[in-house]
Amino acid sequence: MKILKFIPKLVFMIALLAVTSCKENLTEINENPNGVNPGNANPNLLMPTVMSGVAKQYVGLGYGRIAGVIQHTQEDAWKDGFNDYNWSEEDSEWSAWYGYLRNNNLLHKRAIETGSKFHEGVALTMKSFIFGTITDLWGDVPYTNALKGDEGEMLPEFDSQEVIYKGIIEDLKAASALFAAGGAESYAPGYDVYYNGDPQKWQKFANTLLLRYYMRISSKLPDIAKAGIESVYASGIYLKSSSEDAVMEYIGTASDNSWPNAVAYDVSQSNWRRRRPAATLMKNLLANSDPRLKVWFLPVHVRWVSDPTLATGMDEFIREDGVILTGVKSLTEQELRTRIAAGHKFTRHFNPTLYKPSRPEQFNGPLNTDEYVGVPPSMLDPTYFNENPTTGQQVQNQHASQLSYTYQGVKGGILKARLASASETSFILAEAAQKGWAAGAAETHYNNAIKQSLETWGVEAQYDTFIKGAGVAYNGTQAQILQQKWVASWTASTEAWFDFRRTGLPVLTPGLAPVSRALPLRFIYSNSELNNNGASVRSAIEKLEETNFSGPRKKNSQWSKPWLVQGTGKPW
Known about the structure:
The chain is mostly helical. It has 20 helices and ten strands. 40% of the residues lie in helices and 6% in strands. It is globular, with a radius of gyration of 25 Å. 50% of the residues are buried.
């Protein structure tokens, strides 16, 4: 649901320990639970702090560097962490997720103390989502004894992933039962930034998360996964429409509450311009005439044209409406945008017989003449791709596509943080049915998943044509289900990463520059945790499986296998 206009003020008031008059005389609250009296905290005021923080952190990964891992996007500068998986210890990421857990723990406690079943269900759902993300990212983590510092538990042991996933499932079942009971009398309108206090939609969200985590453990605990998915499917209560997706809309009044990389808070526009569609995703979209292509990406500003009559290998300068602009190798983004909008077309010609790459060690051709062009994964120098004459970071690569101008915005339309969707739900059920589980017809779920995704991106009118395409029409394979799910996870690519890790699908290969010759599997345990809770972390590290790709970090590496994929032979 939309965040009402007074939510920003409430969040600032929370952060500043402002005293607010609330229902039932519940007053002082702060984003930091250590700064409030836990006996007075109002569950309503806690909700936007937890929910907005989690949503922003989640999209920060799914639209950020995990999109680089899963080859949805690439960055053409400052690209080591994004394209090449050159990661270090995850201190800030770890602190952020456990910080949300501390706030959510207070929400859960106050919900129980005030007898609010609705808020209790919300807190259990958010707890499951946060812990699920944490264990998905790292492996074994503090769970059972986490968040008990006030009880003297300062060095919690790390629970196994098996224990954590089973705990998440039980909490989601409990949350679903609480929402099923109905009623949200203690809820104050405007504080729930996902569903505005609708218990039925929260129950669908909780049950969709159940489907997500049942499928997550399906290779390790298949009996539990099968029975769980069949039970949720039989209930009929899960996200079925894109209008029910668990999303947060942005406020757009400051960089912290706006879409990531909004140019209103980045005068140079460099962060938006640096991020490019990956060739892997682009190839799929083009091959299938995918209508989402034009929603997500822009055509190249200057298109290569094959010209056998050209006397040289390639034009030195660009052409406007076919006429060479002598001395002009490129124009700025704004110049090109303005002139293209006015109807002008920019090209650069090359002779396919005479053309030779000018820097073959960086880009060895062939030149890509398509209207939409993605950057190959993990290039040594992606700024040089496709014979870009302005390498470096001052001017954009005119021969590669950029993200849609929509992604320069601060809020509205498709700019939403999406935590779970009807499309994901249908893909999970399609995969379950394809396994032979009692979850309906795989083809029906698969088709629904694609239709729901097209609805999300505003191109549902093209569904009938798209679903009949040779590469899209259902062929009965897990590979096709997972490939289309990978496409549909745009801006929420963490789910595609976890699917790839579980199944090896879609088949993705790294480029030339990664530190190790495989896609990573996990985050590296944080330095702060190693320094302060060393014995517990070392015990967790010992349970990781070192692989041929782990490298000098050995077990605590992004290429070591956590329990979830040990013994599965996946993804490699």
